[in-house]
Amino acid sequence: MQASALRHIPLWRSRRVDPDNAWQRQNNEQQNNALYKFINLQRQGRLVDVYNRQGYEALNAVIRNEFGAFLYNDGKGKLVSTAEISGLKRRRTAENNVRNV
């Protein structure tokens, strides 16, 4: 194999992949992330209960009233520059890399 060909081998191929790792991370998120009380991967949570018992209008009310804490500027939004988005993505990637070490 030529030296130039070595540069084109993706690094992820050299790592051993644990198939259970994704499930473990998912389960940890369900325990640590407050959003999972609203809805989770087992089709349970506050949003599902409200929709099943009270319908679409009640679901919208819950989303408007209780999701503000999870949204930027309490759900009022903001125009965000691409530079700011890039910075957020880099920070998120760095945080994920630290967690996965």
What does this structure look like?
The chain is an all-alpha fold and 101 residues long. The protein has one domain. It contains 5 helices and no strands. It has helices spanning 3-6, 19-32, 46-54, 56-66, 82-99. Helix 3 (46-54) packs antiparallel against helix 4 (56-66). The protein starts with a helix and ends with a helix. The mean pLDDT is 78.
List the helices and strands and how they pair.
Elements: H1 3-6, H2 19-32, H3 46-54, H4 56-66, H5 82-99
Helix pairs in contact: 3-4
Observed structural traits:
101 residues; mainly alpha
Number of β-strand runs: 0
What order do the SSEs take from the amino end to the carboxyl end, as H and E? HHHHH
| Low-pLDDT residue spans | none
- The structure class reads mainly alpha
The general outline is flat
Q: State the helical fraction.
A: 55-70%
Brief account:
By secondary structure, the chain is mainly alpha-helical. Helix content is 55%, strand content 0%.
